[in-house]
C-alpha cells in the first residue's frame, strides 16, 4: 500500500521526508508540503481508506478539523473510511478562579488573567490546570457536556456548521464565587470508549491547556443552586456561552479592567436572568 502525508510547515515537511528516506520508506510514503484541502486526488493516485490526523487544538476544532475532514471525505477518501480519531466531545467546567497575590500585594482588583484576556485577540486565557496548585482554582460543579463531534461518519453536508446546544442545567456542588469556565475535551479514537483520550483533569499527563472563559460579572453561588448553560460553536471554537437563571442578588460585580458595554463581546460569556 501507499501512504500520503501532508504537512503545511515547510521545515517540518523537509525533516519528515528525511526521516522517511532514512528508514527506507521513500517508495511507500510521500510527503506533500501543503494543506489537505490543497492536495489533488491525482497526487495520491487513488482515494485513501484510512486517515490519521492531528488537527486538534485546545478547543478540539480550532485547527480546522471539521472543514478538513469534510473536504477529505468528499474528495480524497473512500465512502466508509477508517478515521483516527473519528470524533470528540467538548465540556464546560464551572470554576472559581483567582491567581494568588504575591506577598503584601493585593491583586483582587487587577485579576491578571482576565485583564490579559481583554487585550488579547482570543477570548480566553489558557492554563494547564492539571499542573496548577489547587489553591488557584476551585471546581464548583461537574463539567457540563456541550457538544459531540463525529467528523469520521457524521452527516457530510452539515459537518462544519455552527450549532447551539439546548439549555444544559447544572447544579453547584459547593458554594463559592463563580467567575470562570474551563473548556475541556475528549477524543474518540475509535468506537471503543476504553480508547478515548482525555484532555480533562482525569488525565494529569495531558499536554493540552484548558482555555478559560471569564464571566463578565462574578456570581455568588450556593451549594445546590442551579443555572442553565447554552453554548454555540462556530468552525473554530466555542463562540459564546450564555449562563441563564442569574439573579440580581448573585452578582458581585466586575473584577479587572472595566469593559465598555460595546467591548463586552470579547469575553464571549453572557449572563441572563
Can you offer a commentary on this structure?
By secondary structure, the protein is mostly beta strands. The chain folds into 2 domains: 3-84, Vaccinia Virus protein VP39 (Rossmann fold, 3-Layer(aba) Sandwich); 87-271, Hnrnp arginine n-methyltransferase1 (Distorted Sandwich). It contains 4 helices and 17 strands. Strands 5, 6, 7, 8, 11, 12, 13 and 16 form an 8-stranded antiparallel β-sheet that branches. Strands 9, 10, 14, 15 and 17 form a 5-stranded mixed β-sheet that branches. α1 (10-22) links the parallel β1 (3-6) and β2 (29-32).
Would you count the extended β strands for me?
17
Structural domain tally: 2
Determine the CATH superfamily of the largest domain. Answer: Hnrnp arginine n-methyltransferase1
- Predict the CATH topology of the largest domain: Hnrnp arginine n-methyltransferase1
List the helices and strands and how they pair.
Elements lengths: L2 E4 L3 H13 L6 E4 L8 H4 L3 E5 L12 H11 L1 E8 L2 E11 L14 H8 L5 E3 L9 E3 L4 E6 L13 E2 L3 E4 L4 E13 L8 E2 L11 E12 L4 E8 L4 E7 L6 E3 L15 E4 L1
Parallel strand pairs: 1-2, 3-4, 15-17
Antiparallel strand pairs: 5-7, 5-8, 5-11, 6-13, 9-14, 10-14, 11-12, 11-13, 13-16, 14-15
Keywords: S-adenosyl-L-methionine
GO molecular function: histone methyltransferase activity; protein-arginine N-methyltransferase activity
InterPro entries: Arg_MeTrfase, SAM-dependent_MTases_sf
